[in-house]
Design goal:
The complex is a heterodimer of chains A (111) and B (114). Chain A is mostly beta strands and 111 residues long. Helix content of chain A is 0%, strand content 57%. In chain A, strand 7 and strand 8 form a beta hairpin. Chain A is globular, with a radius of gyration of 13 Å. With 114 residues, chain B is mostly beta strands. Chain B contains no helices and eleven strands. Chain B starts with a strand and ends with a strand. Classes of the chains: A mainly beta (111), B mainly beta (114). Chains A and B meet through strand 4 and strand 5 of A and strand 5 and strand 10 of B.
Chain lengths: 111, 114
């Protein structure tokens, strides 16, 4: 079956880069997404990447996709305290067209 | 622009009481609609999704039901709440034209069953 895994926690110093990793098992994934959830709020779409791309950059965010290893990462440059949140990766299953979420990575940014 | 409204924001209900959570979408037509539950410290579990009025699929057997009385309205209900129904409930929509279009979430409802 389809599975998406993330590490649970990441702690970084303000100003450093953060790298949040995600692995998935569905080799037929078409789209992969990164969502951000601030405390007590819904999920906010941050960025997405098509499965035929290797990299996508959007201001401070860089998404890298290694399709061979089924590994997705989100790099946040110059991490700020406002970046503290839970980050979810999600993939669209090529078999079912359904969105499969990872368990989320809690990013904590300290001064 | 499209917006999604979900209410109430928080709810405390006793065990055995009924539940009704509402979600409405504005600025789009024929959306796909979803209900997710997020248990404390865990990921998202898809509960229901709907591709049209009276077209609702349930992903997991449970104490909850969903209805879509209008194109842009999605309701999550229960006749008798259980303690295990506590959690953070999220409504979401996506454009029906493509199953690959991203989901857009409401702000969620924090439900505590006591």
């Amino acid at each position: 079956g389809e599975d998406v895994e993330q590490s649970l926690f990441l702690s970084v110093r303000e100003g450093d880069s953060s790298v949040i990793n995600c692995t998935y098992t569905d080799s037929s994934s078409t789209y992969l997404y990164w969502y951000k959830q601030e405390p007590g709020a819904g999920l906010q779409l941050l960025t997405y990447i098509f499965s035929n791309m290797d990299m996508k950059q959007d201001q401070r965010l860089t998404v890298l996709l290694n399709k061979k290893d089924k590994h997705l990462s989100l790099r946040i440059a110059d991490t700020q305290t406002g970046d503290s949140a839970i980050y979810f990766c999600a993939e669209v299953s090529g078999n079912t067209d359904k969105l499969i979420f990872g368990t989320g990575t809690r990013l904590q940014v300290f001064p | 622009s499209q917006t999604i409204h979900q209410w109430p924001a928080t709810l405390v209900q006793p065990v055995g009481s009924p539940l009704s959570l509402e979600c409405t979408v504005e600025g789009t037509s024929n959306p796909n609609l979803y209900w997710y539950r997020q248990a404390a410290g865990r990921g998202l579990q898809l509960l229901f999704y709907s591709i049209g009025i009276d077209q609702i699929s349930s992903e997991v057997p449970q104490n909850l039901s969903a209805s879509r009385p209008q194109d842009r309205q999605f309701i999550l209900s229960s006749k008798k709440l259980l303690l295990s129904d506590s959690g953070f409930y999220l409504c979401a929509w996506s454009a029906r034209a493509s199953y690959n279009s991203p989901l857009h979430f409401g702000n969620g409802t924090r439900l505590t069953v006591t």
